[in-house]
Amino acid sequence: MTYQIIEEDGFKYIEAGKGETLVLLHGLMGELSNWELVIEQFKDRYHIVVPILPIYELPILTLGVKALSRYVHRFLKYKGLNNVVLIGNSLGGHVGLVFTVAHQEFVKALVLTGSSGLYENAFGGSFPRRESYDYVKEKVAFTFYDPAVATKELVDDVFKTVNDRSRVIRILTMAKSAIRHNMAKELSKITIPVSLIWGKNDKVTPPEVAEEFHELLPNSELNWVDKCGHVPMMEHPEIFNAYLEKFLDRILLK
Fold first, then answer.
1. What angle do CA 43, 104, 203 make, to 5 degrees?
2. Where do the H-state alpha helices sit in the chain?
3. Where does the AB hydrolase-1 domain lie (predicted)?
């Protein structure tokens, strides 16, 4: 990415643009670059902030979705931000949900894409063959409808991460925390507008997950992206951005 990572007071993030604030939350194996085309599309009209979630920095005994939610709370207070639109992919969506239940006064609206929080079919709970590049490549490709989106650069990054023993232990800890923390009984508390933008061919959080979110979130809309897997903003950025723009226009410009 061409954006400089800002490091201050224990926080790492990127920031661009001015206007209403969009806070983008990445997934468990996600990178800031996952949001690059969203940032490019909206930075001329919105203030965009992308915190790096401290999955590899928090004490492992406290690591979980609630700990990441508390981190987001500290970060928003540090930046003096409220009335934000939270946009989360995968684990980032789950963190956004936990945060919104606890601090709905900070959030004007929520966008979820491939969010965990109800059910997810991730790497299977372990990396039994993490030393095998072909195995990791296959698992990364599983994330997308079109395997070609799993570029060598992306596979290389994941391969390096899952072969770092300290990091893989944290990834598994975080994944287990997400699976245990089912939010079905809490979603009715979220009354702000929610846009679900979902890959029709998502194998990690399948379409029925999106339908259940839509049913349980009282003020939600459901938008499908055809021929698309778990990361719509990477696989079909034009369609994702069009849905997002329409939602933002409706809730922020009315």
1. 70
2. 36-42, 65-79, 91-102, 133-141, 152-162, 165-180, 207-216, 232-235, 237-252
3. 21-237
pLDDT digits (tens, 9 = 90+) for 203-245: 999 999 999 999 999 999 999 999 999 999 999 999 999 999 9
In this structure, is residue 162 part of a structural domain? no
Angle, vertex CA 190, rays to CA 204 and CA 110, nearest 5: 60
> What are the structure tokens assigned to 107, written together?
């959030």
Backbone angles phi, psi at 13, to 5 degrees: -165, 165
CATH number (domain holding residue 99) = 3.40.50.1820
- The C-alpha atoms of residue 10 and residue 249 are separated, in whole angstroms, by 34
Which amino acid belongs to residue 218? Answer: P
| Residues whose CB is less than 8 angstroms from the CB of residue 77 and which lie 6 or more positions away in sequence, other chains included | none
How far is Cα 206 from Cα 208, in angstroms, rounded to an integer?
A: 6
Residue 1 lies inside a defined structural domain of this protein: no
Distance between CA atoms of 136 and 216, rounded to whole angstroms?
A: 34
Enumerate the β-bridge partners of residue 51: 13
> Considering the entire predicted model, what is its pTM?
0.92
